[in-house]
Amino acid sequence: MMTIENITYDENGLVPAIVQDEQTGAVLMLAYMNKEALEKTIETKETWFFSRSRQELWHKGATSGNRQLVKRLSLDCDQDAILVEVEPLGSACHTGEKTCFFETVYEEKAATREIIYEVIESIQNRRENPIEGSYTSYLFQEGIDKVLKKVGEESSEVIIGAKNEDKEELTSELSDLVYHSLVLMEIAGVSVTDVKKELVKRSK
Fold first, then answer.
1. Which residues have C-beta within 8 Å of that of residue 173, sequence separation ≥ 6?
2. Long-range contacts, 29-34 (Cβ 8 Å, 24+)
3. Are the folds of 4-88 and 115-203 the same?
4. pLDDT tens digits for range 58-90
5. Which residues does 31 contact at the CB level (< 8 Å), separation at least 6?
6. Structure pTM?
7. How far is CA 179 from CA 53, 74, 194, in A?
């Protein structure tokens, strides 16, 4: 179990803190903490840092409202860096971007780890802001019975794709099933977090 006494601070009494979205795994920002900032973070369960330029403590989101609710703190193997897993209540970057690491300088292939959350965000947007001609908006307009019918149809097509031993077909049909399941979850008020919690319970 991590304790404050385990941490190795640098010559300025600081330790780097890597802030990560606990749900998506996205790295949101890199900042620094001194002992007081870490104590306040643990006490308030929100992120506090030490500004090297202003030489003072600062509470993330105090002025912008983009607070970060702390879910977990972990030390690295050398005990000189902290991983802070949070639930972000808004953008992490002062530019308005979700993460400070939005400038890609090299990419072998597009990242896929956040795609489920991007699809969910798009689904929620179509529910709140219907667009003419949008299939997702159409599903919400038709209601839960239509969505349930589509989930049933896509489940059958997944079975057919699997029986055909066609990986490409099966992948396509599974993607359709996941999409329609996410629409159903939005209508029913079930979140990915709810599903993850249930899976965690089952794994134990």
1. 154, 157, 158, 160, 161
2. 29/92, 29/93, 29/99, 29/100, 29/101, 30/100, 31/60, 33/82, 34/9
3. no
4. 999 999 999 999 999 999 999 999 999 999 999
5. 16, 17, 19, 47, 49, 60
6. 0.77
7. 46, 34, 17
What are 51-61's pLDDT values in tens digits? 999 999 999 99
Domain 115-203: give its CATH superfamily.
MazG-like (1.10.287.1080)
Instruction: Give the rounded distance of the alpha carbon of 23 from its chain centre.
Output: 4
pLDDT at 95: 93
pLDDT tens digits along 138-188: 999 999 999 999 999 999 999 999 999 999 999 999 999 999 999 999 999
Where are the domains positioned within the chain? 4-88, 115-203
182-89-30-36 Cα dihedral, nearest 10 degrees: -140
CATH class (in words) of the domain with range 4-88: alpha beta
